[in-house]
Amino acid sequence: MTLRMFAADLLVFSSIISAAWCQSALKVSIPKSLNTTSGSCLLIPCLFNISKERENILESSPEVTWRRGSLWSLYDTDGFTIDQRQKEPVMEVVGDLRKKNCTSVMRNLTSLHSDRYFFRIQAENFQVTETKAVQISVSDSLAEPDVTVPVLREGEEVNLTCTVPAPCPSRPPNVIWDPALGGNVTQRTQMNADGTQSVSAILNFIPLLHHHELKVNCVSIQNLHREDRPLLSHKMVILSVEYPPKETWISFTDLVWLGDNVTLTCQSKANPPAVHSWFMKRAGLEEELGISHVISFTASHDNTGEYICEAQNLYGAMNSTNLQINVLGISFTAFLSILAALSLLIFALLAMTIVMIYRRCKEAIMSETNQDQNIYANMSASAVKNKQLQSKPNDEKTCTINPVYALKHDLHDETIYANC
User: Fold this and answer.
1) 122, 196, 309, 338: which has the fewest C-beta neighbours closer than 10 Å?
2) How far, in Å, CA of 183 to CA of 206, rounded?
3) If we measure between CA atoms, which residue out of 303, 356, 319, 37 comes closest to residue 172?
4) Helical residues (DSSP H) of 20-169, grouped into ranges
């Protein structure tokens, strides 16, 4: 507390003591504190009681004021000038004093008007100031909405309520839900126990599975007579929708060999989380294995069978599909040894096959080469012979004998051809 405030309190206290004789004549009922927004107004709920011998002043329209605590020392003095009075907010009594209602409205408020205010009533030959003050705080921002979310159950209709103060009834805030979840929103104004007012937006909808873990905002919008944009305030809530187990399944992907360490995990979607129970069917009989999210065992022939997981919570239960597990008769290590031996055998056979194919291909290639050489040799010999035949007529001499010459010389045919 500052020295200035302490001095003001001291002056108030001394004034109260000096007027102690009339304090029992006035009792005022007001809130301890009120909050509003800069640029808006403020409704001050006020009721009072006055002694019967003083009730007659109510008919003479007494003067009602609210004295500001930080200016207390200036009231009723020449120092309380027009400049000082301008520091007070514009005040209007809207209640009916004859009905002992002193409800008032402060207008054109700014953050500079945050202070304590004392109720004062004054008439001819009578004046009194209430000793209790109302603390008024003027902020440049809106108060955060108050959100009420009941238990949300899938398929059951429910209301979400968002409430914000309405300190200025002539300019109530606008309250919306974003998103509206496909429901209906009703806005209403209600009176609080201390006489103040508030505005509520009630969202009526049916929660569904896709609403689970959805973020929803309650937004308060205050339109003011100012150049800047409207003031906004919001509160975000994450919905938690309760529903029975859904999509229950067993997480398992590996083969099972004799002696393996096996782990089965039961998965399910449920809110609240489900309790998981395990069962095994074998030879027509069902055996309960226990309650757990995960079960583990070392594989033996006794573990061969159908495994079922049941997920259950307050709202219902759901079984997984049956998982058939067959434990193979040999261990995985033995299987690897056999697999390695088979691999070596296959590799050897493959190598032999490749060698045989190579040899056959080589022999075929050599045979084709020999045939090609023989064909080439025959073709060469034939070509030489043809050449010789073609060149022989050119080597022989041609004899041409004139028949007249033969007769003249008395030559016979034998002689003629012999000479040729």
Assistant:
1) 338
2) 7
3) 37
4) 82-85
- Return the percent helix, strand and coil in the chain, to nearest 5: 30, 40, 30
Question: CA 58, 62, 63: angle at the middle one, nearest 5?
Answer: 150
Place of tokens 């805030």: 173
Strand partners, 376: none
32-70 pLDDT, tens digit per residue, is 999 999 888 999 999 998 888 888 888 877 888 888 887
Choose among 134, 129, 121: nearest CA to 42.
134
Which 3 state secondary structure label does DSSP give 95?
coil
Please, what is the Cα angle at 112 between 110 and 113, to 5 degrees?
Answer: 75
pLDDT for 286-324, tens place per residue?
999 999 999 999 998 888 999 999 999 999 999 999 999
Residue 258, number of CB atoms within 10 A of its CB: 18
Angle at 30 between CA 29 and CA 35, to 5 degrees: 170
Element (H, E) at 385: helix 332-395
Instruction: Identify the residue with better confidence: 130 or 79.
Output: 130
Distance from the first to the final alpha carbon of the chain: 165
**149 φ/ψ angles, rounded to the nearest 5 degrees:** -120, 115
Question: Which position has the token pair 């190598």?
Answer: 351
Distance from C-alpha of 174 to C-alpha of 275, rounded to nearest angstrom: 45
Give residue 179's pLDDT.
Answer: 94
Q: Which two tokens stand for residue 176?
A: 């919306």
Name residue, tokens 């209906």: 184
DSSP-based three-state secondary structure for 94:
coil
Per-residue confidence (pLDDT) for residue 237, from 0 to 100: 96
8 A C-beta contact, residue 38 and residue 30: no
**Integer Cα distance of 137 and 34 in angstroms:** 6
Q: Which two tokens stand for residue 264?
A: 């089965």
